[in-house]
């Protein structure tokens, strides 16, 4: 039975959900408080990454966060704050950061990323969005130190066992792969299974396709109230008026917990701020790379090179910390010796808030408390990579059909203990 569906959130998860729901024949409305030109879906590194199968909640991450707490330019920064919700989340994150849980999450995240990569490539082959930048040229996990080499080679060995296409490159092999980039690194794990894209381009094409296909898109529209009784949402009240529907999708990223709290659901998600610098000059960089020691991502996009990264837990805000922008630039220059940044490029840096769950796995599916609501959030740094697959899974949940992969691991009601 075809339904009227309202999606709250217009990022990659929301628009991907709208795309597949529309394809399935549903009447779809997307509501977002933004102008559809900013946020995490627009400032990310554009990676499509089966290589990212290790969740953020890995052993040692909390201790690193505490160690770096008073260094606001560190890669993983937790701003000192008195926030009971953050304390609860951090404790759940700590409890989830075990070798056993990471091992259990590895095949799930790998399969999820592969599903989404296949959907990106299916979108590229279709005529729906027209031409857009997506290519599978791989991803370099570059390192400068013996410790970095040991860590990346260990992960690469796990990746090989999981069936991923990865090779370890020596310093000379790495330099030969990108002769014009002048990369100063000891070596790299080269994940030839990965792809990359230009997010703003794809988001704009998704928006245009949905709009032209009859999907109602309400931008600059904030949800102010939700009318629900006995676990059934009847309507939402927005700055543009009341909207009724049969099903509701909450895909509002880091703002999802605020909406769900109105419905009596406590979802553990914290906003993790990431930054990006765009350089619209030739850089010689032709293959995406993550710089191991600095945790910085570099992506050659369509018309520019993007330098992105850091994870900052400082609440729901878009304050640009100059020291964190400078840290990205300094890290990039330490690896790419010819690289220089203009002051105007640093001043135009933007940030986005990535929704981070306590165990590094997203929340996808229904919660027992709500009968006609599907949740899609908590993807952390993999929101872009997992966007199409999440939209397809949400559609399958609403359709009541078998999902493309098991979603038990993404249960919004799961416990963290």
Looking at the structure, what is the overall shape?
globular
Measure the end-to-end span.
39 Å
Into how many domains do the coordinates divide? 1
**Helical amount among residues, as a percent range?**
25-40%
Mean pLDDT: 94
According to CATH, the homologous superfamily is: FAD/NAD(P)-binding domain
Individual helix count: 12
Q: Mind describing the biggest β-sheet?
A: 9 strands, mixed
* Rg calc: 21 Å
CATH fold assignment: FAD/NAD(P)-binding domain
The CATH class designation is Alpha Beta
> What is the name of the CATH architecture?
3-Layer(bba) Sandwich
Number of strands: 21
Low-confidence segments: none
Structural class: alpha/beta
Strand content: 15-25%
Topology:
Layout: E1 4-8, H1 12-23, E2 27-31, H2 40-43, E3 47-48, H3 61-67, E4 76-78, H4 84-96, H5 99-125, E5 134-135, E6 139-143, H6 146-161, E7 166-169, H7 171-177, E8 187-191, E9 195-197, H8 199-212, E10 216-218, E11 223-229, E12 232-238, E13 241-244, E14 247-250, H9 256-261, E15 270-279, E16 289-291, E17 296-301, E18 304-313, H10 322-335, H11 343-347, E19 350-356, E20 363-365, E21 373-377, H12 383-399
Parallel strand pairs: 1-2, 1-14, 2-10, 4-18, 6-16, 14-21
Antiparallel strand pairs: 3-9, 5-9, 6-8, 7-8, 11-12, 12-13, 15-18, 15-19, 16-17, 17-18, 20-21
Helix pairs in contact: 1-8, 1-12, 5-12
């Amino acid at each position: 039975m075809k339904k009227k569906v309202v999606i709250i959130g217009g990022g990659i998860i929301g628009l991907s959900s709208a795309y597949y729901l529309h394809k399935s024949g549903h009447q779809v409305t997307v509501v977002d408080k933004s102008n559809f030109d900013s946020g995490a879906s627009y400032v990310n590194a554009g990676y499509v990454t089966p290589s990212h199968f290790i969740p953020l909640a890995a052993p040692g991450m909390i201790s690193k966060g505490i160690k770096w707490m008073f260094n606001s330019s560190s890669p993983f920064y937790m701003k000192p704050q008195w926030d009971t919700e953050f304390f609860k989340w951090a404790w759940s994150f700590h409890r989830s950061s075990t070798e056993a849980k990471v091992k259990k999450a590895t095949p799930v995240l790998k399969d999820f990323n592969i599903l989404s990569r296949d959907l990106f490539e299916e979108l590229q082959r279709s005529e729906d969005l027209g031409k857009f930048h997506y290519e599978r040229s791989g991803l370099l996990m570059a390192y400068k130190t013996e410790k970095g080499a040991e860590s990346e080679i260990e992960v690469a060995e796990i990746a090989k066992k999981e069936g991923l296409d990865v090779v370890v490159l020596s310093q000379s092999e790495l330099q030969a792969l990108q002769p014009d980039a002048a990369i100063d690194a000891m070596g790299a794990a080269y994940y030839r299974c990965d792809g990359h894209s230009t997010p703003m381009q794809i988001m704009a094409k998704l928006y245009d396709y949905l709009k032209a296909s009859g999907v109602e898109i309400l931008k600059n529209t904030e949800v102010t109230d939700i009318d629900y009784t006995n676990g059934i949402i009847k309507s939402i009240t927005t700055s543009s008026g009341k909207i009724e529907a049969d099903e509701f999708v909450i895909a509002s990223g880091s703002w999802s917990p605020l909406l769900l709290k109105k419905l009596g659901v406590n979802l553990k998600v914290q906003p993790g701020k990431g930054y990006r610098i765009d350089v619209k000059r030739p850089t010689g960089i032709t293959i995406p790379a993550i710089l191991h020691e600095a945790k910085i991502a570099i992506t050659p996009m369509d018309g520019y090179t993007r330098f992105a990264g850091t994870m900052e837990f400082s609440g729901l805000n878009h304050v640009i910390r100059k020291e964190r922008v400078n840290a990205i630039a300094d890290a990039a220059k330490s690896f790419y010796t010819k690289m220089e940044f203009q002051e105007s490029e640093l001043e135009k840096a933007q940030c986005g808030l990535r929704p981070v769950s306590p165990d590094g796995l997203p929340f996808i599916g229904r919660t027992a408390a709500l009968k006609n609501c599907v949740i899609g959030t908590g993807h952390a740094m993999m929101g872009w990579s997992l966007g199409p697959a999440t939209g397809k899974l949400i559609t399958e949940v609403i359709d009541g059909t078998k999902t493309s992969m098991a979603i038990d691991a993404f249960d919004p009601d799961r416990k963290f203990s």
